[in-house]
Amino acid sequence: MKSYAFGIDLGGTTVKIGLFDPQGTILEKWEIPTDKSNNGANVLSDIAASVLGKMKEKGIGADQVEGVGIDVPGPVLNETVVNRCVNIGWGVIDVGKELSEKLGGLTVKVGNDANVAALGEMWKGGGQGHQNVVMATLGTGVGGGIILNGKIVPGTFGAAGEIGHMCMNPNETAVCGCGKKGHLEQYASATGITRMANDYLASYTGESSLKNIADPSAKDIFDAAKAGDQAALDLVDKLGDMLGRAFALISCVVDPEVYVIGGGVSKAGQILIDVTEKYFKKYAFHASENAKITLATLGNDAGIYGAVRQVL
Amino acid sequence: MKSYAFGIDLGGTTVKIGLFDPQGTILEKWEIPTDKSNNGANVLSDIAASVLGKMKEKGIGADQVEGVGIDVPGPVLNETVVNRCVNIGWGVIDVGKELSEKLGGLTVKVGNDANVAALGEMWKGGGQGHQNVVMATLGTGVGGGIILNGKIVPGTFGAAGEIGHMCMNPNETAVCGCGKKGHLEQYASATGITRMANDYLASYTGESSLKNIADPSAKDIFDAAKAGDQAALDLVDKLGDMLGRAFALISCVVDPEVYVIGGGVSKAGQILIDVTEKYFKKYAFHASENAKITLATLGNDAGIYGAVRQVL
Fold it and tell me: Is the ipTM of this complex over 0.90?
């Protein structure tokens, strides 16, 4: 094992880069902007220049670098080929090969961002100490990552862990961002929670502080629930029912030891864990009932931790 | 690689045993009864005696045997410890260790029967040529097995692949054999199909040949559907909807390349594949939509093929 490795989290606005030691301690982290001009043609050169610049600055030789792990917001095949990143402007591109060439032959491994975040949380976050971990990221959408035996499950078509598109309600009439109907993301993402709240409050006859808020956010709802608002408590219960059932379905497939919930919605804290666990136990096959449900702890750093883990 | 290996499929009535070459050709296969007396205390000794007897008969030395793979009808941890086999009478028992001792130290690997059947179908059956395979066995119950990168996914609590207990309908009032409600097994097993048929026919006002049959079986229903009976076609459609949606859910977790359908219900043939595929495409996330759905081909031999594959 060499002395250094880099973890890179490529987002649509910024690229986060971390310099790590082999035990996964961050020695330094910084950001560069994501240049989306010209369909993202400069992104890999910018990243390579930043990494090589840091190596020069610190006097780190190529022979001291174990490798470079990177995550991207799109499906990845064979830890190297990215199959369309809409947010960056990329089509099909062999990121592993191209970035390695720009880095003078350093080992590069590439993963999908949701999968890599799950790997990061397994290694240094909410899933620490476990090898079979499923992460659900509840943000604008719902992302997921499946880790078995400490490794990302990428899927045949790069779609493993796409738990946001599990069809939870075949009778749904509203359409998911992907074009199909009744998907988890329509109920458990930040936007889905607001949509559910608007629907519920429209026919809710009791008093509720949420009625004074146009398009209540997940935070509004959780805050009101913590203050005892009944409509808010009902909505939290609906979310827990949906998420707990989704986890119970996942347990029938891969039976993980722990579920880690991250993303903006998870800032609600323990109340979200408690309600999800309640319904998970209701729906789960008895053998899997004792899987843990916990909060993510790495926040925005999950990506760089998971990215570097790919090469360590 | 040595010249021989044994694959053993332990069922509640008989033990099937196969002698294989390292390429997976069956050289000989035979059965012995499963002695369930005294909580199955003699089962492993009977198996060992049969294997050692065959080795003596054929003049095969222990140094020519790569190993012995066995499957059991219960959850298995770490490829060795069985955690209760209700059908055999066993509690917690280290089958790998005990059988190896009775076999003079031969390598023994143990798997759950549904998982091992999936491995067999991947290797020599309907999933041949693929490394990421999910098998659904539609029999008295619904079993399943998940194969990723050519290996069984056992799960943390031995419950990976328990797809029969996926909660497909949270509003179901009837109870599954496991004590919870709305599970796939309640709709897609042989008994579940009959139950659905009775419910549907009770309120079906049209003509149907099925109305003349008390408790129509899956075979009765598929035969009537092939003959154009509308009620039977409706029931086949309901089954395909349920199974196709279950597969779409599974694809969001592990994204396999192929689904293999086995068990008694799969004798219906292509009509079952066609209707499952129709609904799979309806519900699946677009990236996974092209996964194949196919019939199992090994029948009752899937167990011994998969069992021996564990040691080859």
Answer: yes
Task: Give every strand in the sheet of B108-112, ordered side by side.
Answer: B26-33, B14-20, B4-10, B65-72, B108-112
Q: Say if residues B81 and B94 touch (Cβ distance below 8 Å).
A: yes
A86 Cβ under 8 Å from any chain B Cβ: no
Question: Of B225, B249, B257, nearest to B238 (Cα)?
Answer: B225
The pLDDT assigned to A30 comes to 97
Q: How far apart are CA B194 and CA B187, in angstroms?
A: 9
pLDDT recorded at residue B142 = 94
A213-272 pLDDT, tens per residue?
999 999 999 999 999 999 999 999 999 999 999 999 999 999 999 999 999 999 999 999
Query: In this structure, are residues A125 and A263 in contact, taking their beta carbons and an 8 Å threshold?
Result: no
What spatial distance separates the first Cα and last Cα of chain A, rounded to whole Å? 8
Long-range Cβ contact pairs of B236-240 (< 8 A, separation 24 or more): B236/B271, B236/B272, B236/B275, B237/B275, B238/B187, B238/B196, B238/B200, B239/B187, B239/B188, B239/B193, B239/B196, B239/B272, B239/B275, B240/B272, B240/B274, B240/B275, B240/B276, B240/B278, B240/B279
Q: How many angstroms away from the CA of B98 is the closest CA of chain A? A: 24
- The phi, psi pair for A13, rounded to 5°, reads -115, -45
Q: What token pair was written down for A69?
A: 């792990």
User: Who has greater pLDDT, A140 or B308?
Assistant: B308
Say if CB A146 and CB A175 are below 8 A apart: no
The yes-or-no verdict on residue A140 having pLDDT over 90 is: no
Most A CBs within 10 Å, among B255, B280, B283, to test the A interface: B255
**Residue B311 near residue B119 (C-beta atoms within 8 A):** no
Q: How far is B198 from chain A (nearest CA, A)?
A: 23
Query: Is there a contact between A250 and B253 if contact means CB atoms under 8 Å apart?
Result: yes
Q: Any chain A CB within 8 A of the CB of B165? A: yes
**Which residues of chain B lie closer than 8 angstroms to A154, CB-CB?**
255
- What pTM, to 2 d.p., does this model score? 0.93
Any bridge partners for residue A7, and if so which? A18, A69
* pLDDT value of residue B226: 96
Asked if B170 lies within 8 A of A252 by C-beta distance, the reply is no
Q: Which of B146, B176, B285, B286 to mutate to test the interface with A (most CBs of A within 10 A)?
A: B285
pLDDT for B215:
95
DSSP helix/strand/coil, B302 = helix
